[in-house]
Write a structure and sequence with these properties.
Keywords: Signal. The chain has 262 residues and is an alpha/beta fold. Helix content is 30%, strand content 24%. The longest helix is centred in the first third of the chain and has 17 residues.
Length: 262
């Protein structure tokens, strides 16, 4: 075989190999620091880069959806295959969506926050009657017993539901909200960044429920939870998962700690 023919065969082989990669659609919604249109970098985006660089059997790509579409997205006829950093307890069982789960990766909580003033202390959080509370449309909160209906939450909890926690922090600072409910990981990431969104914020010492974040995989999709777990183990052994966790200041919430081989 001449050198030219060998190069042609190699090129065809490499092209076929590239085409053979199975595309895996990763559902993402506004949930910083895991994904946010307000951040140049986010946890899921960094993890997808690492997964795609590590192997060529699967090609992971992000598909942005509203929070309340995530159940439909992983359903049998849905647009996506997996969702990263999601809690199964956030309504998946009640909606009868058939999903597989990896082991938990993150353990954390939501907390109420308010604007810090000289007069406000922890007892301020005990008096929410008549106060305006900022939350996220489609999110599941412990203090509302998991209710997600917008009209119900506005009527019974006086909630303003936006499409961004960053927006809620901005409204809080401008005194258009009395409280906002924010996930701890976002506050930790902001505290380690150049952003001033987390400044002058008083955080409640009381948690609003605990959650475990995993990777959820839809049934009969492009990848299985077992394969996803194996990829996490392999990528984790290179130290890349720990690096991403440190990048976003999430070490205190990390519960999946793969063995790293140097």
């Amino acid at each position: 075989m001449t050198m030219m023919r060998w190069l042609v065969v190699l090129a065809i082989s490499l092209s076929a190999s590239a085409r053979a990669a199975t595309e895996v659609d990763v559902a993402v919604y506004e949930f910083p620091p895991y994904y946010s249109m307000h951040f140049e970098q986010h946890v899921v985006g960094e993890l997808v880069k690492v997964l795609n660089d590590y192997q060529n059997q699967y090609s992971f790509r992000l598909k942005v959806i509203p929070p309340n579409w995530r159940y439909r997205a992983l359903s049998a006829t849905g647009c996506c295959d997996v969702i990263f950093f999601e809690a199964y307890e956030w309504g998946w069982k009640q909606r009868h969506i058939d999903v597989e789960q990896t082991v938990p990766l993150i353990k954390s909580h939501n907390r109420f926050v308010t604007l810090k003033t000289p007069q406000r202390e922890q007892d301020f959080f005990a008096h929410k009657q008549g106060k305006r509370i900022g939350g996220m449309a489609g999110y599941v909160y412990n203090f509302t017993d998991g209710e997600t209906d917008v009209q119900y939450l506005e009527k019974h909890y006086n909630m303003y539901l936006s499409d961004s926690q960053i927006t809620n922090l901005r409204l809080l600072r401008n005194r258009r909200l009395d409280f906002a409910i924010i996930n701890e990981e976002l506050l930790a990431t902001l505290a380690n960044s150049d952003s001033d969104y987390g400044d002058n914020i008083l955080m409640s010492e009381k948690q609003d429920g605990e959650y475990l974040l995993r990777i959820l995989v839809g049934a009969n999709k492009a990848i299985t939870a077992a394969t996803m777990q194996q990829l996490l183990r392999e990528v984790g052994s290179t130290g890349e998962i720990d690096r991403i966790i440190r990048q976003f200041n999430l070490e205190r919430y990390q519960i999946y700690r793969p063995r790293v081989y140097r």
